[in-house]
């Protein structure tokens, strides 16, 4: 209990710091992004100049995404609890991901581990959990492999959703750090996607387990009581 209290206090401090950083970054990024859009409309750039402008646009977009993640982590929105059909929700998500050009030739497979069921959850926020876990797995596979998304019922009757990928896996010594804010082993990663997912799961009264797979890859299993 004391350990959890210390952890929650640390997370609150990190959240406050993240909110301040996000505010300052967005204040600087907004005029930069707006100025670039104006220049793109007014100037007819070619060759290297066009490439440089595209680089600025891409990096502004990336930093805006980072700011959005910071704000998502630092602000706990009120939960709007309703009945969420797990099968329908995951099927829609997997269909969307299978059409995403970012993930190349990765196959997204849905594997039902039990009867179709539902869970009491915030529909928008629980989708964010599943999207973050799936995206993390897909990015780890570097454009090829299979992501298996399954669900079922745990030993205590809780809903369990699993994301199992064919990526390189997670080193055993890093498993305990996965989900901590700003910890990442991915080049260009922020370490916030899984932290946001874990925070939402815990606010729903659930847990998230991360494990290395024997055949390579890794698995994430959010559990909702």
UniProtKB/TrEMBL annotation:
Residue ranges with Basic and acidic residues bias: 203-212
PANTHER family given in the database record: PEROXIDE STRESS-ACTIVATED HISTIDINE KINASE MAK3 (PTHR43065:SF10), SENSOR HISTIDINE KINASE (PTHR43065)
Enzyme class: transferase
Key words of the record: ATP-binding, Kinase, Nucleotide-binding, Phosphoprotein, Transferase, Two-component regulatory system
Keyword Transferase (UniProt): yes
Reactions accelerated catalytically: ATP + protein L-histidine = ADP + protein N-phospho-L-histidine
Originating species: Eiseniibacteriota bacterium
Entry annotated with the keyword Nucleotide-binding: yes
MF-aspect GO terms: ATP binding; phosphorelay sensor kinase activity
EC number: 2.7.13.3
Region (Disordered): 203-225
Protein name as it appears in the record: histidine kinase
Gene3D superfamilies: 1.10.287.130, Histidine kinase-like ATPase, C-terminal domain (3.30.565.10)
Ranges for domain Histidine kinase: 20-207
Classification lineage: Bacteria, Candidatus Eiseniibacteriota
